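User: Please run a holo structure prediction.
Assistant: Happy to. Please share the sequence and the ligand.
User: Here you go; the ligand is protoporphyrin IX containing FE.
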Amino acid sequence: MRAALNGGLRRIPIRALWAGGLIPLALLVWDAVTGGLGIDPIRDIEHRLGRTALYFLIASLAVTPVLRITGVSFMRFRRALGLLCFTYAGLHVLAWAVMDMALLWAAMARDVVKRPYLIFGMGAFLMLLALAVTSNNLSMRRMGTVAWCRLHQLVYVAAPLVTMHWIWALKTFPLEPALWLAAILVLLGLRVAVPRPIRWNVAAVQK
Amino acid sequence: MPLRWSDVTPKNDYLNRRAFIAAGLAVAATPGWALTGKPSALSTDQKPNTLEEITNYNNFYEFGMDKTDPARHAGAMVTDPWAVEIGGMVDRPGSYGVDDLAPANALEERIYRLRCVEAWSMVIPWIGVPLASVLDRAGVQPGAKFVAFETLYRPEQMRGQSRPILDWPYKEGLRLDEAMHPLTILATGLYGDVLPNQNGAPIRLVVPWKYGFKSIKSIVKITLTDSRPMSTWEQMQPSEYGFYANVNPQVDHPRWSQATERRIGAGLFGGREETLMFNGYGDQVASLYAGMDLAKDY
Ligand code: HEM
């Protein structure tokens, strides 16, 4: 079963994940063009991009625990998941700068250093940027595995920051980002609690 | 035939309600669905937002925290019968009906700017009466200094109240001179029609120079007092929401800037506008705060 699943996953081209991962963007563009967004379309664009980025971030965090616990490997897709996250995060920041803030540079600069929710968002964005530019084989070789892995552990800082960015932006304490934060902490906990693959079925692993 | 709130209560959302009204008109052919207000010199000449925008983008946490929740869920609130309990330091305390407080022949149209504390804005054509006319009728006693307001508390019809997001019922307050100011109204309608539930039916406060959360909706209680009432947001987070909550571009919300605002309906590249002191009503209201440090009394 597990072997069959892993075999099936191996046959899915990475490009298919990219195509699927860009569907939320296509839907958003479609809604924006056809007037399918709400009364304040800018806010909807900003929020949907931000949320999609967070979903891909969490999906990429889940890859290792899922592999260790179930033996099912999405490892091939992890880089694409991370880069999809960064794509949406970049568009989210772009939507904020161009549509929401209308490129009022001075106001943007003042806000980003002063407002906790933007400090969290910018912090997370810079970390994701560092991860995105090193998400290629050349960087992995140049940096060496140890340094590369250490850098990419930043994702465990970036992900909680994103949820704090969300919580701090709202007037009252919201449930949804708090649940995502809990999910992230569980994934981090699993990484620590299950440091290497569980051998549920020795025969299957040995084939 | 007098206007009855039950006849015009939205069933589900405002669009359904319009179909419902059209059907009602066709059957009963009663006049009196519409509400007309005399034009007022206090109205802005800026272009009002559309009815669709005004009725589908609301902060009314009694029905949920998303801007679209009120349009979806406020239909469950029963607004007829409705009574507003006026009490405290007044000569004629009692329970007043909406028509008593805002009789048809006293209604005025007030096209006001609305500035939300979240840094967005709209222009809304309210219909209502000056709050001063209501307070005069009740007879304010000499010692009264403040007016406290309370929203309906009815969790079985107001689904947001079943969660402790805020300390229900919602409360607000004004200084007596703010309450008596000619700009301050109790609104019962907008756009030539009675208020949709999501906008605070059947009767709500509108104070155009303060952030929107001061303009309390669906009022059931008005109390004149000599001590400053505590308002809901101030109680929850006093460092972020003051009692006055005057629109002030120089005093930021601790977590975001208030210097500029985004006009709802301006389009994807509509940009931002500078926020005006007292939301542009400074000529009329700045004198109320003469000598006060507005960075301290925010
Ligand atoms: C410079 C960096 C960033 C800026 C300026 C920024 C800006 C914003 C703004 C203005 C909002 C709306 C807040 C409101 O509703 O008032 C927001 C919400 C949000 N942002 Fe960001 N953001 C940044 C980085 C990020 C990153 C890196 C992510 C995710 C990977 C992210 C995910 C989100 C999410 C999930 C929301 C909440 C969406 C919702 O309420 O539905 N943000 N951000």
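The mean pLDDT of chain A is 92.
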